[in-house]
Specification:
With 429 residues, the chain is of the alpha/beta class. The chain is built from 16 helices and 16 strands. The strands form 3 sheets. Strands 1, 2, 5, 6, 7, 8, 9, 10, 11, 13, 15 and 16 form a 12-stranded mixed sheet that branches. A two-stranded antiparallel ribbon has the order 3-4. A two-stranded antiparallel sheet has the order 12-14.
């Protein structure tokens, strides 16, 4: 047994290890590249636009958060016909975000030892329904028209697989698919892999690219999407606002490099923040609606605090899941108030979905990036379109807010259909 393996084996029986963030990569409706996206977020930019193709004209919702693709960009090259022949669009987006995150972390291992201690935990919420429809049409023409890459394209774990294959990472290879909690669960699971000695470095996050007429129609039939702002798409996603009427679908990918603290120090890596804790819960209530008393969200947040071993009063920011749905936002607000009690008046709350929409399986990870940058830079990103709040929580609305605290500690919530909940506790290092 190698010495490094012996050390890792022994670490399973010692105190849990600290986990930090050393790299970030983003592809989103408000840009590609972490710095650009963060700057656009703070400026109040919005990436929600009209869907003008004829297939959308008769649908109740005709807007979405689409990724802007510039000519001669790395993103355009990643979405080439040759790549899309064998990979789903979401996988291509994940590879772009991963390349940025690894470059940012200065971690592209070359030795077998370093590759064996590096893993991947990255998932998606939905497969590309257009791919399924197009392949079904091809089958009607003939068996030989079905692509041999059809199954690999629609498997939710293929983004993780492609990342592992491209870079030779041989640590844990893990894919989560828990609807809109996917990205946060991926980060939380990666955190635990490092904490308990299964890896020293984890590439983690989520990717989503499933905007299509069928997907929009399906969510419309659930009455989940915004339908009142088709002529003003930039105003449609309005978390915690009384005029909210549903979420806006978005697409993109965000990838984080998590690293064991001592490992990061030894190689003098840049450290953005620390992952302190991870909480999970189930609503056990309804296939799409959260538990009305907010107890599922409350349990998730409480368990994250317990895992982090911190007190409630240490938290001064909550990056909310708040998707702009009438029920969901109110339930999350209630959960925050019930958990923190009197301290809730001292907590800043925001949801960035007004800027980029709801990225489904890539929502929790994108918003975790923003929470990490808030901890790192001391600036809380705003909630766009918040004009008439649902209650008296301290919402950061329209413009950023300076974050004053002895140590910046935040919770990041993500909740998904089926009643699946995840919360990350993230702090200034």
């Amino acid at each position: 047994m190698r010495i490094t393996q012996q050390v890792r084996h022994l670490s399973r029986f010692s105190a849990p290890r600290r986990v930090v963030v050393s790299g970030l990569g983003v592809v989103s409706p408000i840009g590609t590249g972490t710095k650009l996206v963060w700057d656009n977020l703070l400026k109040g930019c919005c990436g929600i636009v009209s869907l003008k193709e004829s297939e959308y004209l008769n649908l109740p919702c005709r807007i979405a958060g689409l990724i802007p693709v510039k000519k001669d960009s790395n993103l355009l090259k990643a979405l080439s016909k040759s790549n899309l022949k064998s990979m789903a669009p979401a996988t291509c987006l994940a590879l772009v975000a991963t390349a940025e995150a690894l470059l940012d972390a200065n971690w592209v291992p070359e030795t077998d030892t370093d590759k064996e201690i590096t893993g991947v935990a990255l998932g998606m919420g939905m497969i590309n329904l257009k791919d399924v429809c197009d392949t079904n049409d091809a089958l009607k023409i003939g068996y030989n028209k079905v692509s041999p890459f059809f199954v690999p394209r629609i498997l939710p774990n293929m983004a993780a697989g492609q990342i592992s294959i491209k870079y030779g990472f041989r640590g844990p290879n893990h894919a989560v698919s828990t609807a809109c909690a996917t990205g946060a669960h991926s980060i939380g699971d990666a955190y635990r892999f490092i904490k308990h000695g299964d890896a020293d470095v984890m590439v983690c996050g989520g990717a989503e690219s499933c905007i299509s007429p069928l997907a929009i129609a399906g969510f419309c039939r659930l009455r989940a999407l915004s339908t009142s702002f088709n002529d003003e798409p930039e105003k449609a996603s309005r978390p915690f606002d009384k005029r909210r009427d549903g979420f806006v679908m978005g697409e993109g990918a965000a990838v984080l490099v998590l690293e064991e603290y001592e490992h990061a120090l030894r190689r003098n890596a840049k450290i953005y923040a620390e992952i302190l804790g991870y909480g999970l819960s189930g609503d056990a209530a309804h296939i799409t609606a959260p538990r009305e008393d907010g107890s599922g969200a409350l349990l998730s947040m409480r368990r994250a605090l317990q895992d982090a071993n911190i007190k409630k009063y240490e938290v001064t920011y909550v990056n909310a899941h708040a998707t702009s749905t009438p029920i969901g936002d109110s339930v999350e607000s209630k959960a925050i108030k019930n958990l923190f009690g009197e301290h809730s008046s001292k907590i800043s709350v925001s949801s960035t979905k007004g800027a980029h929409g709801h990225l489904l399986g890539a929502a929790g990870n994108l918003e975790a990036v923003f929470t990490i940058l808030a901890c790192y830079k001391g600036i809380i990103p705003p909630t766009l379109n918040l004009e008439d709040p649902v209650d008296d929580l301290h919402y950061v609305a329209k413009v950023p807010e300076k974050w004053e605290a002895a140590r910046r500690v935040a919770l990041k919530n993500s909740f998904g259909f089926g009643g699946t909940n995840a919360t990350l506790c993230i702090a200034q290092i």
